Amino acid sequence: MAGKGSIVCGFIAPHPPHLVYGENPPQNIPRSSGGWEVLRWAYDNCRAKIKQLKPDVIVVHTPHWMTLVGHHVSRVPRLKGLSVDPIFPHLFRYRFDTAIDVELADAVYDEARAEGLIARKMTNPNFRLDYGTIVTSHMLNPDWDIPILSLSANNSPYYFSLNVGIEEMYKLGRATRRAIEKTGRRAVLAASNTLSHLHFDREPDPNLPEDMSKEHVFSHANYLWDMRVLGLMRSGRMDELLAVLPEFIERTGAEVKSGGLFWMLAAMGFPKVPARVHGYWSVIATGNAVVEWDLSAAGGDGANADA
Amino acid sequence: MPEGRIVRGYLMPGMPHVMLPRDAASRQELRRACRTAGANALEARPDVLVIFSTQWISVLGHLVQARANPCGLHVDENWYDLGDLPYDFRTDVELARKTIELGTAAGLQVRAVDYEGFPVDTGTLVALDFLNPKNEIPVVCMSCNIYAGREEELALGRAAADAVRALGRRAVAVLSSGLSGHYFTREISDAEDHIASPEDDAHNRAMLDLMAAGKCREAMDRVPDYAAKTGADMQFKGYYWLMGAMEAGRITGKLLGYGSIWGSGAAVVEFSA
User: Fold this and answer.
1) How many angstroms separate the CA of residue B114 from the nearest CA in chain A?
2) Which of A27, A188, B168, B173 could form a disulfide with B9 if both were Cys (CB 3.0 to 4.6 A apart)?
3) What does the DSSP 8-state code read for residue B249?
4) Which of B78, B109, B147 is facing A67, going by the closest CB pair?
5) Does domain B5-272 have CATH number 3.10.310.30?
6) How many domains does chain A have?
7) ipTM field
8) CA A57, CA B55: separation in Å to the nearest integer?
């Protein structure tokens, strides 16, 4: 496959394992009586959209594969195993089995290096996919009938500074876009991260994690920040969004800092089309939104390809 | 029941570079020191190894491994190209449960994990490779809470020591932790490896000197400043845990080896009364 590929859609696709737990899919061992429905219904819209778009690949940038030296791409044709969440093992013990788009992995690696980034190919077949990749991939496509490509989160925004991290993610975004175009893929991108990220330091009820009477966003201030950021996305005010994200991260501990959103926006050419917010709710007090940028109407091109 | 106590303690690096690849000629001082620690620990005839690893990160309190026989294959998320880490060890479940009970009584949030496939971290497995290569000694492993401070880690260490005493165990306490945490963000060869800066090196050596002089409590008081200046591994909070377990005022450290791993500081220190 080669030629002019395109990014058809991008999602902010948060990865709390609670969402899989609440759904009770056959792959996950723990059972629940539900919970976090508003976010799960939001993902239902994304699933329908992906079925309609029939992309070749879902590319996931995950903060739970944190790498110290460069940006890593999963580069094994198939990965399978049991993923147990190290933080919430009582909620998430998931048997995953997925195809990896290794041709695209090679292309992202090459283009990342062309951008001057350090990149590595993860070729160990025993590698256990992180739960961020798995939860996001499951929530977007529980049938796992579309190959994925998992990209690590380089530690640069934490080790150096947010600005250094953002610059790296803009380069990785451009690299990803070129790789998709050169390999002829129709790709969906997923930034696997929450918005505000301050959380409870104890589960309200470990014996009934899905007790929604105990669930609320960490603070009104965090809620207002999440709404402000979502408002900018919904109205397509991309320049204002990019300007406010650093303060948003500082004030709310937003997981956006790990880079996925910056990467995705850069890959999509910083689109000024209004984003669609499918749903927002808290998970152990963190702010989570499922947000879609649909580029398919424009032939898969971002609105501002000169990123 | 014999009198239970922690007879020896170790600070050891948790990075896989000290054990993988098996035939590597790099970092010989650290490798030798880890092997010496393993031999000395065995000589102490422990009933159990109690391990705190900075690479087992928890968010909601502390976690303690309570599965009787954790087994599986671990691949490090950064250093997967060095090789796989198969594991198959026995947990001292009674001691694990007692540690949880006493930690909880001390006001900590401590929970058991007993799940097939629960990821055992690289730091724990590196320690076990040197201290328990035949998996003959039962183990109790516990996590490093990213939000915990000095008092919480001291309390968890004391809870582990109290549990050892209560059950009459003869234990070796192991802290799997690095020292200075600044690392190279580019590819390097083993031959290029060195402590990331002379300042980090000086701070590491000063900290190790205090331990070797028996000034373990003073070293503990210096941890916040040391951690801030060197970006120490998990703020070097694991040292609080070890001092809580071993009672800082009554022990002396003996430096077995010091070196760098990808720019970060690493040392093997043996603590005894």
Assistant:
1) 9
2) B173
3) G
4) B78
5) no
6) 1
7) 0.93
8) 32
